[in-house]
Design goal:
The protein is α+β, with helices and mostly antiparallel strands. The protein has 40 helices and 75 strands. The strands form 18 sheets. Strands 1-3-2-4-5-6-9 form a seven-stranded mixed beta sheet. A five-stranded parallel beta sheet has the order 11-12-13-10-14, sandwiched between helices. The protein has a five-stranded mixed beta sheet with strand order 40-41-42-43-47, with no helix packed on it. Helix 12 packs antiparallel against helix 17, helix 31 runs antiparallel to helix 32 and helix 33 crosses helix 36. It is globular, with a radius of gyration of 36 Å.
Length: 1506
Amino acid sequence: MAHLLRSSRATSGFSLPKIDEDDEKGSLGLTTLHESQEATPDVDIVFVHGLGGGSRKTWAKTVDPSHFWPKAWLPVDVDFKDVRIHSFGYNANWGERRQSILNIHDFAQSLLGEIKNNPSIRRSNTKLILVGHSMGGCVVKKAYILARQDIAYKALAERVHSMFFLGTPHRGSDLASILQSMLMVTWRRKPFVNDLLPNCSTLAEINDSFRHYAVDLRLWSFYETLPVKMMVVSKLVVEKYSATLGYGNEEISSMHADHRHVYSGPTPRETILRLKGILGMTELAYEDDLAALQDLRHPGSCFWFTEQPDLSRWKLGSPNSPPIFWLTGRPAIGKSVLSSHVIDQLNAQNFKCSYFFFRHGKAGRSSLADCFRALAYQMSVNDSTIAQCVLQLGQDDESWDQHDDRVIWRKLFVGAIFQLSTISSHIWVVDALDECAKFSSLFKLLPQLPSGLRIFITSRGTNEIERGITSLGPRVVTRSLNNHDTAEDMHAYISARLEDLSLENVDELCRRILAKSQGSFLWVRLVLQEFESAYTDEDIDAILQDVPDDLYEMYKRMLEMIESERRRTKLARSILSWVTLACRPLTIDELRCAIILDINERPHNIEKAIPTVCSQLVYIDQASRVHMIHETAREFLLSEDLESTLAVKRGERHGHLAQLLCKYLATDAVKTPRASQPFPGTKLSMVFDTSLVEYAARFFAEHLYRSNSEGAAPMYELCRFLKSNILYWFELIAQAGDLQPINRTATNLAGYLRQRTKYVPLADKDIQLVDAWAIDIVRVSARFRSKLLSCPSSIHCLIPPFCPTGSIISTSFATQPRSLLVKGARELDWDDCLNRIDFYKGRTTVVAYGITCFAIGMSTGQVSLYDGATVQNISMVRHPELVKLLEFSGNERFLASAGEKRIVVWELKSSSQIWLSGLASPPIGMCFQSELLIHTNRANQIITSNVNTGEVQTVSLGGSERNSEITDESPSKAAFAPELGLLATGYRCQPVSIFDTGSGAFLGFCGGLPNGIDALAFNPSTDISALAVSNAHGDLLVFDPQTTDLRYKKCNVFANALAWSPDGKSLVTGDSLGRIEVYDFDGPDSTLIYRIDSERESVKSVVFSDDGLSLVDCRESRAHVWKPAILVQKNTNIGSQSDISSQVTHAPRTFGPLGDPKDPEITSIVCHSDGEQVICGKRNGEVALYSAVDGQELNVLYGHSRGTSVVAIALVEYQHIVVSADEAGRILMAVMSPLGKHGLQAKLIMDTRFNSAIFGMLTNLDNDRLLVMGKEKDELWELPSGKVINTRIPDENGLRSMIVHPQAPNAFIMFTTTIARVFDWTDFKELTPETGLPLHRDGLSLSKDTLVNATYHGSTPIVEAVKAVGETSGTHLFCWDIVSSDSTAGIRILGSRIGLLTPVLRDAIAVVGSTLIFLDKDLWVCSLDLTTFNSAPYGKRHFFILSEWLNVNGDMLYAMTSKKDFIFVNKDGLIIGWTVHSGSMYRRTSSSIIPTISSMGGTSGTRTRV
């Protein structure tokens, strides 16, 4: 498929042939698409489409014939050379107006007849492979059954070898129910649609028969994993349980596609777009660079270089040729042009070539991370195997542009791409490495290149480069470029250009130019450009006489020529400043807008003006981007000793450009971003040029950071922008789908402030404003990331009210018109603790972080995995003992857990155990190396296990010949450095020892004095050789493990947990007092930059997130996720230090103390009918009164035993009674009376034990009965006496839920998994037959204990939201209608399932009238009309809630008051309540329960299709 993955640029030029509707769908019957190349094919493959498809349409993503893959792709695959290919079509168009009498049986008979009567198939004895998509799979099964049952088809049936089912609804699909309803409305009968209904008898019959006949077949079932966007919901059309058969001879696999595309495969464009998103390739700058160099290259030149024997041997990968070819040379000698030629030659010879051109100081082109992502993208485009690998890594929305070069290299390349067998067919070309910001890091990475991968690199021959090349040893062959090498090419180029100019004496001129050029192609180009304005021989002689032979003198002469034209100097200075300092090349339109901002002049014919005014110092490429003619020209303009009015004073001009960009962002230009409409209600004063908006939004802070920070004007304009348009800036960035510029902006603002405080005091109001926004920018991006990406305009009215009341975004924007009104107790300042995870059984022991998720191990053996972005629990596995160690594999495919006696390896995707090993000795450390799991134990052994093959290798510490220096003492701590192949072990009475992990050889001691080791951690960066050690004396020590020298020591740290950040620049420690400290090692000395003080539990383990911006710790009964702003702000990967002025260092930020939450967690809630008060039960046993007006706790009414959680509350309003039950089965009843103006007081009137676990209580409308529901029994009480009227022992297992009968208030209904029963409130007498009322929950495979949770809302109908054991697809919604008659035996319950909501529904909140208000899976509060939803499935999103409000089980506690106000509970124990109104926030209306998206500033005021 490599030929299918081309860049969008490469495929943008052709047009598609027009195909009419019939041709697009395909013909009916059996059509042969391809005859085998072999005389007698071995196999016939028949493709059978599904519902609404066609013999061509189903198998092609577009009308483009090249996308019809059974015909266009398979025949060219060498593995299909002996295969004949067919496609079968039948009329399954459910949308046709005319009725149909056909069903699956009819289609199967037609398929069988077509195959039997096909001459090619009939005359051969080939094996048959049948491929069915959707309903086509059911047709295939039925056809095979008919063939097995008919003697006439016996021979044909025996030839069927395999079947492939793609998204086949073996047990039906909810989509059929929707289509059936639509067809009934339009009076169009389609029996084949009815055949696909869930639990349909037709499908049941096919499955029962097929099971007996399919024993000898090879079966493959593929199920979809992405929902199809249909109206209000995005839904899986065929759930996994329906798409699989469950047979022993069935292979099951998932496909990263939705139902529509599970068969057609992605188009090249779609694959490329996904790859671009995963790798952060918003712009393919390397293509522009290559095109520009190709234009410069003279035809026929450079072949002398690629024909050299040593380069040819390198290109072919000869055995004796090193994998790296390194070309060095001085500036402007032609290295980049040679690189472009090498690329063209490799591509012409069908090598898989990926390339990158470094450009100093240009965003996206100056770092190793930029290079690695570009190479990975091109490798994916050239190699479908690598593409699938990258797509697989990106399934969890992982974006590699958020990682630094070390992480990308380690996890994307070493951990994934380098493991693939096709890697040996790839070649990299990397040009101008010396222009990379931190190129020295590459020398540490190159030794890890896999066998077969070859690299061509060019650079200047600096001392640092030469030292790096020397360190690579025999892995590299070098070639130095000199004047003689390029002389012939230069002569040919000069001659051709002189002839183009129609000059005489070409040979003589050529000789004179060559003599002065000193081998510089750039110098030659500049001279020849001057020749273009020469009209006499004297002019040419003057040019050659006057032009200096030194390139820099040439630049100086060009500046003098510009300055001589005083009229143009102003424009030239502006152009040169922007082009020299721009963070990426500007387009012509961007530069025009920038010039107008700068000098208030509008240039005409700018394409011609730019190179003319600037005397050829800049040029315009084919993509209309403006560049400096060469990096040496940029260096010349920035040199501090340049005396010219056109000199670009770095710090001063960066400040000027920053001032202009901030001023521009404060205008209405930012309010009209491209591809979007202005925020509702925005009034634009005039039309602005928006050409520069994208650049200004992304890079204004970059220019601020690089400025000298002394001037007041940039700060003034920055503050104007922050006070006016900062929210529009958020929206603009979020619309691009990448929030990385937000964090980068915060980093730059923090750096700018550190510099600015040298000139103004910290108390300056502007400093405080910018500092506040630098913090809020990071916090908003972290806390509301998913909301910003899904709804960028939510930044205006939805996000500010959720921010802390003391934050700058809240104080500035939370109360603006149309904002959501949030009430209740809210945090004053941003909490560095993003989330707290509480565990109520067992204690935490260890935490580990992978790429996208982290895992927490428990003393109970439980290992819980959490999504790193949302901190939501995503799965749980069970280790057979206390978990001591956890370790992720580099590609996050595996997780290893270890205890005293066992190690288990889990596959994360399926949460399944794939490997288990018993242990003879307790492990003390482990790591992954690809599929190898390495651990060391207390028996002084290193054990390497292959988790795929089970092969185990054991070596002893010290190797086969044990060194006498090595102690026999058992080590207590250990740490691995898999990249270095090192192991460090710590002892109680011995110094730290270093070993080789492969051989076990002893390498040396770190430190001389034995003093007990508490923790060890190797620095993961290969650039930084460091081992952190914490000893029992409280010392924090950092050794160089290569030399064993001590590099750093700090006393009185007492860390018992250590971890390095992925980039190796930060070290975090945790101690027994609960204190966490972060040290910055990005420099010669370590600096404490952050501290979390705590008087709580000991820190057991602490780790950095994969991006190094978050911390996760675990301590006894809880874990915390921290997002310190300092970790974002300290990121200095934004330019070399030479580009900025010295910075001011500040004292470390301290957070804490970390104590208990303000209030214990609320566990149950009930609202008073007046809508003003709420009564809550807490985890500590308290029952408290809260205000529904402002969410404040008014007073505690009474309490259960301390530490006993309240599980249920009932309010008996007419008798002023509150009843509460706790987890121990104790029930308290109290009578309430007024206390003060708003409070209540309570007096206990009953205290009893229920003797069973209680899960619910219900009162009748007369308030004289209370139903108490328990695990073993249900009781009906009289109120207020508490007398037990009757007791019932349930015979149902699993879920039981009770509601008041909506039509008969003197009765209540009990729902179970399979039946419902009706009881009398008077005496608990059952009013229904003994068998109960059957409940038919379509779409659920039910047993007695299937349902685990259900809530009920409304009355006519009763809306049930129910969750089932093992269900991951969502919450099921059913509507139950109670149909009564005069006799109790005539009561019936009729149900209908709203299956379309299942994939998105999380919880139902309330039903008001016919409107269902619910919480979707993305935590948005939504609404829809139940009466019209099935026929017109529309709904509205209104606002969201925060994920940190969910409890430890991921559940949300909520209610709606009688005034239609929402009450939510956050997990810190505070009631969070807010009132939402339509229109004005202070005015209620009866026409809207909650505001529409348009009235709250959402993305659209129109209805949204689910």
